[in-house]
Amino acid sequence: MAIRTCYIRWKGRATPEEFSWYIPAAGKEEALEGESTLEDLKPQLSGRRAVLVVPGRDLHLTTVTIPSRNRQKVMRAVPYALEDQLAEDVDQLHFVVEQARGEEGQGVAVVSHERMAQWLAPFSDAGIRLEAMVVDTLLLPFSTDRSTLLLEEGEDLLLRSGRYHGFSLPAAAALQLLESERAQGDSSQPTPLEIYDLRQRGGDDPFWRELFTSETVTLNEMHGQNLWQLPLQWQGSPNLLQGSYSRTEQLGKMLKPWRPVLLLALLWIGLMIGSDWLNLQRLQQEVAQLQQESRNLYLKAFPESQRVINPRAQMEQKLSKLRQQEGGASGFIPLFAPAITAVMAEPGVEVEGVRYRQQRLELYLRLEAIAGLERIQQRLEAEGKSATIESATSRGSEVEGRISVTEKQG
């Protein structure tokens, strides 16, 4: 389901106490509209895009032709191409250039940063995030063969005279401009004009009566209605929230003070991941070494075995089989089982030989240090066996030892 848009209109220069808003119909859902404070408007904005409609009176709309298709170059060139037309310093102005280039050039909207800040402030204070900001003049219906004039009760006149041209002026000033807009060089062929009159009553001024009855004028009397009832061109206006006002730029500004902290955090995370990776590699090597030692010990204990997959499980199977063959709890198996377990628990040990005679098990071992023999002896005694280190001889960096294991005498 498509996300619906709520259009919020800013009227006048001061911040309105209440805003006129409109949510176009979508599918089976009817259009909604009303006037309310921003706080009361919040429920209507839940799950919807908020778009602010600002007065064209505070913008300069024009077109410019820059001989380049590189958008970055166009953006850099536009302020200086229009510098002579603007009263303020270009550094104080926000320029929005449309993406596509028309026959008359690329459309440009110019507004002061001060005005942009004024429009954005109440929404920021209210915790409302605007997805876009559009111009009311460029929402008016438009066709290439006629201009559009909007008359509202107590509001400035809106006149759209081109794809990217229009005015929002007080009535007195607009009437003077209208005379020139109605003719294009030859006064005998005035420009066709479509008028939407939303005032409670039509104008009684002689000029308006003459204008309304002109053959080149199409009058739409919509007394008492508002802007939202017009066949608006929702895609006719550019989004003013571009450049430094885009969400990406705003996020960048918000994160800028935190960049050193974020970089340190990323560095720390990278070091931790690197350390964990090295520890993992070391543990994998140790596991592989222990597995190989287990295989070697198993093969020495059972040299007839041809294939070693799981030394521990295979050792248990062999011992279980030997216990069954032994038929009791005395003899070789009760001594051999704990002896092998104690030896396998000692890293770096090699079994040189095993001998069983007269109820005594002898283990011939090769280890790294005599302490290993002592640990094996302790493990056997902890299992209730009697273990004695019969001999321990140093051979270079290794120790050859012999341990005898017997049952403890009651």
Question: How would you characterize the overall build of this protein?
Answer:
With 410 residues, this protein is α+β, with helices and mostly antiparallel strands. It folds into two domains: 253 residues, Nucleotidyltransferase, domain 5 (2-Layer Sandwich); 124 residues, Gyrase A, domain 2, CATH 3.30.1360.100. Helix content is 35%, strand content 27%. The chain has ten helices and 19 strands. The strands form five sheets. A five-stranded mixed sheet has the order 3-2-1-4-8, covered by helices on one side. Strands 11-10-9-14-15 form a five-stranded mixed sheet, covered by helices on one side. The protein has a four-stranded antiparallel sheet with strand order 16-17-19-18. Helix 9 crosses helix 10. The mean pLDDT is 81.
User: What's the story with the biggest beta sheet?
Assistant: 5 strands, mixed
**The CATH topology of the largest domain, please?**
Nucleotidyltransferase, domain 5
β-strand number: 19
- Strand percentage, roughly? 25-35%
**What's the end-to-end separation, in Å?**
84 Å
